[in-house]
């Protein structure tokens, strides 16, 4: 599962284009049948509850005409209660460009296993029948919005899927929401630099924000992501992994390997490698591994269960 940079780059398997065409044909046939039954003008629900029995019809088939975002949640999950309303509101705001399928994790264990969900909330997308991991944990709204924008772009450019046309949402009678506060220009500039691949510029921009507002969560996460991407830029992945395997006592080799693990979405591997490095080192080496682990926690977010687990493991080896 991807860390919180939520990059969609390379996420879609281009070999799935044929499957996408077949799925789209089935979806068009289903719409034609609905029209014959007089259901073509029925209101469209943009937020739906889905279970295992309805998954194929509600998610797989519909993913041929609109990107379907999946929200794995549960009643007892506090981060879910923070994330789900944001996903629902943004889905309605996007007015048919995405569909949100809410899946109760406790009642749909088979789907949890099929998607490889390790903790909730967990958010995936299905495009043309292809599952894409997006993020885990209650991410900031700005990053969720960016992820949805990327998902829509990927769906259109690679599969020709443009979403449901002319949909106003299924909550038209809801009171109008207060206009959102304007985005911080400094954060916008930092994000633009990150999107453009100007990692040095992004790092500096996020640092500038934090200088004036040390508690800015979005800037902290953005800085951690930009620094991670800058560290792995240009690394030879094969050589880095060989060095880490051949020299387990080389702290720098372990740090580089952990960064590659994180950038590749292997979050538990990155955390486990650094916890083990902290355990078997001392002095400056131990501190370097500990600080790098804390930096990677920022990329994922404190509320993510993988971070909670790794923090506990770190505490055990330190104390």
Automatic annotation (TrEMBL):
Domain Thioredoxin, by residue range, is 36-153
State which residue ranges cross the membrane.
Answer: none
Family of this protein: Belongs to the thioredoxin family.
Tell me which UniProt keywords the record has, alphabetically.
Disulfide bond, Electron transport, Redox-active center, Transport
Which Pfam family name is an example for this entry?
Thioredoxin
**Organism expressing this protein natively:** Streptomyces ovatisporus
Its recorded name reads Tetratricopeptide repeat protein
